[in-house]
Structure formats: C-alpha cells, structure tokens
Write a structure and sequence with these properties.
The structure is a single chain. The chain is of the alpha/beta class and 386 residues long. The protein is built from twelve helices and 13 strands.
Length: 386
C-alpha cells in the first residue's frame, strides 16, 4: 500500500539527509563523552557541540553560544523556565491557543500560588491584542506563548507581542516548537528573553534533543530545576552559576546533538524561506482541494497565509477518529486525530471535546501527496453518504 506521511506536526519525517548516518557514525566511531575526558577525541567532540550551539545562534539571530542550553525537548525547556522563574505571588500570561507544554507547567505553578491568565484568541486562533494588554499587572513576571498552533497552524504576531512585553519590562518567552526551521524566528526582533525549540520537528533532527536560548537577565533569575554532574566545578555541591553548565546537569544527548548538527547544516544550505514557501504551497493546495467537499469543515484561517503547514478538519458526517483510521488503514495516509495535547486551543476553536483530524505538511510533502489525500477524503465521505 502507498504510504503518505502527513503528521509532521508530531515529528518530521523523513529527517534531513545524513542525520541518521551522522548519529550512527558517532555511536560506532566516536562514542566518548564531552567535558568528562582529557583526550583529543573528547576535545574534538566538545568543538562539535559548540558548533551546534553556534548554528542555533545564527538561525535565531541570538548572540550568545554560552546561553544556548541543550535540553531533552522543548517541553523540558519550557519547564526549566516556567518552573525556574515563577515564585509565590507572581503572575504569568499565556494564550488560549497554547499547547500543554506551556499550559501544564503554568497550571502546576498555581500550586506555588502563582496567578495564571490565558489571553483570549479568536475562532481563527489569533491573539486578541487589546485583551492581552489588559491582563498585565504589577506582579506579571512572565509572558510565555506558542508561536504557531499545533492544531490549526495559526501564527501569533511574536514581534508585536515582544514589543508589548518590552515596553512593560516583562520577559517574553516563545515556544517555537511548530515554527523553528520553518518560519524565520528572530530573537532580537521579537524582543525575546527566551526561546524554546525542539530538534525533531521543523529542525528536521532526531527526537530527544531540544534547546533553550536565554538572555543574561533571564539566565541570572532562573533557578535550576535539575541538579547533577556537569563535568565542571566538581568541587562544588551546588550547581555552577556560569552558563551553560548551570542548566546542563548530567550527560548531554550527544547522538542527538550530532544529528541536530547535520540537520541544521541542511537547513542553512537550503534556506528557511525556501522551506516555508514549499509548505505554504502545499497548505494552500490542500485547502483549495478540501474546502468544497461536503461534510468537511476547515478549522482556523481560510487560507495558507498566516499559518504554518498545519490544517485541521472537522468532519460532520463521519466521526473524526473513524476518518483518521480509514485514511491510514485503506489509503496509507498518516494523520493525527484528537485534541493534540492542546485542549485550550480546541476550546478556543470550537472543536472541544471531539477534536479534529490534523494534516501537517513538511518539506518532503509532494503535490501528488496532497491531491491523493484530498481525493481519499472525498471517496470516504461519498462512500459513507451512499
């Protein structure tokens, strides 16, 4: 059976060329640790790790390799910041379109008597800027939001949000899980204090590696939520205060970093603008081919503009879970059905609690895949109605 992968919102597939080979070579030919060995191979590996930090800095217009911290995922990055910054009496603002990677750490912060506000978004997933600005208080200590919706693809105006936060001297942290490597993300232009990314989605790298990029002011205020060995300042029982060691307890995921290095190289060579243009083209083609199918409701924005390559459909005559199952079982089309770890977003979009079927496109998605998916949806619905 033909296989069509349209679940790039969960993880990209295939990965960038050479990622698997680079990781395999590291495991079979290098295999040592970084910061723990006093020999040339370990020092060379340290240079490769630093090179990967530099790649991330270039991609996101950030100016500090030492403040580019490797983590297991974007979820860990967000927890490090939300959990390490907010204290009793603080106030944090998120949005009603955020993923649970943002929402759950904020919810957990309530147990520390942190006040939480969710800025409202409209039925297309766009932040209500006026309502957002009214939420600021004297004790607002953080604004943290997702850049792009993992449900319907809607992009928030990170530049405008950043300016609003900067004017109020409130740190702004961006969850770029759905946009890093696909949409230009500029740390300076967005007036960010922190940027959280994962390596396995738009960055086209492996699972298990992420990063947080934080400015000096935020780095100084954060308390490490995980402690352990760093290969540095071993005479101290407390975590080092210098970066990035302050937040890199334990052994780094070195195979993951090596794979990410190769993926970032591919993106640099290809160009984010080219990648985004392709995803926009595939998204517009899909929307044009499905919006006229009876019994199919498009969620969010009416076209590709203002979104990443993610489209959610709500089927009115067939259960969404059944549609996702039939697409896979009979047509080999892989999607994701449900609430997508984002109940707030589905409540905002009017698709809670039944959810949607999500189609998420990537750089490797072809026009023929889009046409095939749309035709398959039409066939299933026609068969059900008949």
């Amino acid at each position: 059976m033909r296989k069509v992968y349209l679940d790039n919102g969960s993880t990209s597939f295939p990965k960038a060329p050479g990622v698997g080979e680079a990781m395999s070579d590291f495991i079979t030919e290098v295999g040592c640790n970084v910061g723990r060995g006093g020999y040339e191979t370990a020092y060379d590996l340290g240079e490769k790790v630093f090179e990967t930090r530099s790649q991330l800095c270039r991609m996101f217009h950030f100016n500090s390799e030492k403040n580019t911290v490797f983590t297991p995922s974007v979820t860990y990055s967000l927890n490090f910041i939300i959990g390490g910054l907010l204290k009793e009496g603080d106030h944090v603002i998120l949005s009603s379109m955020d993923h649970n990677a943002v929402a759950r750490p904020c919810e957990a912060a309530k147990q520390r008597n942190v006040e939480v506000s969710a800025a409202p978004c409209d039925r297309e997933g766009r932040l209500d800027m006026a309502a957002f600005q009214e939420l600021f208080r004297e004790n607002t200590a953080l604004v943290v939001m997702s850049h792009g919706s993992n449900v319907c693809g809607t992009l928030q105006d990170a530049e405008e949000i950043g300016k609003i936060c900067e004017a109020r001297s409130v740190p702004f942290v961006l969850d770029a899980a759905q946009t890093a490597g696909v949409v230009p993300v500029d740390f300076q232009k967005f007036c960010l204090s922190g940027l959280c990314v994962t390596g396995h989605k738009g960055l086209l790298g492996p699972q298990g590696i992420g990063a947080m990029l934080i400015n000096d002011a935020l780095a100084e205020r954060l308390t490490p939520v995980i402690s352990g060995g760093t290969g540095s300042a071993s005479h101290l029982l407390a975590m080092p205060e210098f970066m990035p060691d302050k937040f890199e307890a334990g052994t780094l995921n070195l195979p993951g970093i090596i794979g990410l290095n190769r993926a970032l190289q591919f993106i640099e060579e290809t160009g984010i603008e080219k990648i985004y243009a392709h995803e926009q083209e595939m998204t517009e083609l899909f929307i044009e081919n499905v919006k006229g199918i009876p019994g199919t409701r498009l969620i969010g924005l009416p076209g590709a503009a203002g979104r990443v390559g993610t489209v959610s459909l709500d089927f009115e005559t067939v259960d969404n879970a059944e549609m996702a199952y039939l697409l896979d079982a009979e047509y080999g089309i892989m999607t994701r059905c449900g609430l997508h770890c984002a109940p707030l977003a589905h409540q905002t979009l009017g698709t809670y609690p039944h959810g949607t079927v999500r189609f998420a496109f990537g750089y490797w998605t072809k026009e023929e895949d889009i046409i095939y998916a749309a035709e398959s949806i039409r066939e299933i619905l026609n068969r059900k109605e008949g």
